Amino acid sequence: MTAPIPPIPRDIPELPAIPRTHRLLPSTVSTVPAAAVVPPVRRPLAAILRVLIAGTAAAGVAFELRLDSAPRVLSHFAIQADILLAVVMLLSARRAWTARKPLPAALTGAALLYVTITSLTHHVLATTTASPLVHTVTPVAALLEWLLLTSPDRLRLRHAATWMAYPCAYLLFLLAVADLFAPAAPLYPFLDPAAHGYRHTLTNALLLGLSFYALAVLLVALDHARPNPIHHRAKTGFRLQPPVG
C-alpha cells in the first residue's frame, strides 16, 4: 500500500516583498564619463614652447648677472619674477609632456602677473636700463603662452588679492635693504626713501599697489572673456542608452 497523499492547502501564505535597497539614477546609467575610458592627452608642442620660454627667462637673468653683482641683481623684482616664471614654465612643460593636470591657475596667473608688472613699470616709468629679454621678450612670450596654450575660466577674483602678498612683501624687503645700496644707485628711484623720504615713498608704493591690483582684476576678467584655444572634446567610443519600453 502506498502512503496517502496529504491534502493541498487552500490558502498559500504570501511571500514577503523583497526590499529595494537603492535605485539607479538615470544620470548614472545613461552616459559613461570620458575620463574613465579616454587616456589623458599629451601636448608635446606646448611642452617644448614652455621650455623655450623658461630658457628665455633664464637667459635674461644670466645676462643681468654678468653686468652687476649677484646680490644687487637678484634683489630686483623683475629678476625674481623671471626666476619664478622659469620655474613655473618648466613645471608646466613637464605636466604637458606627461599628460598630467595643469598647474593651479593661481600659481601660473601669479607668474604672468609679476612679469607683466615688471614690463609695464619699466616701459611706463623708464627708470632703469636692462636687457630686453627681461622686460620685453619674456613678458610677451608669457602672455602669448597664456592666451594660446591654456584654458580660460580658471582664474578667480580672490586670486587677485592673494597675488598682492608678494609685492607687499617685496616693498618691505626693499625698504629694509635700502641702506645697503645707498652708496650706489637705488634699485628703484621712485621707491627710494633716502631721496624722497618715507612719506613720499609709501605714497608711490600705495599708488603702484592699487595699479597692480587693478591689473590683476583685469587679468581675471580677460581670462573669462577670452576664447578657448584648446579644443579636446573627449569621446568615449560608446554610449549606454536607457532600456526601451
Question: How does this structure look, described?
Answer:
The longest helix is centred in the last third of the chain and has 33 residues, at 193-225. The chain is built from 10 helices and no strands. Helix 3 (44-67) packs antiparallel against helix 5 (77-97) and helix 6 packs across helix 7. The model is unreliable at 32-38 and 233-245 (pLDDT under 50). The protein is elongated and about 120 Å long. 61% of the residues lie in helices and 0% in strands. By secondary structure, the chain is mostly helical. The protein starts with 25 loop residues before the first helix and ends in a 20-residue tail after the last helix.
Tell me the strand percentage band.
under 5%
Query: Structural class from helices and strands?
Result: mainly alpha
N→C terminal distance: 56 Å
State the helix count.
10
Query: What coarse outline follows from CA principal-axis ratios?
Result: elongated
Helix-strand layout with pairing:
Layout: H1 26-30, H2 34-37, H3 44-67, H4 70-74, H5 77-97, H6 105-125, H7 132-149, H8 157-163, H9 165-176, H10 193-225
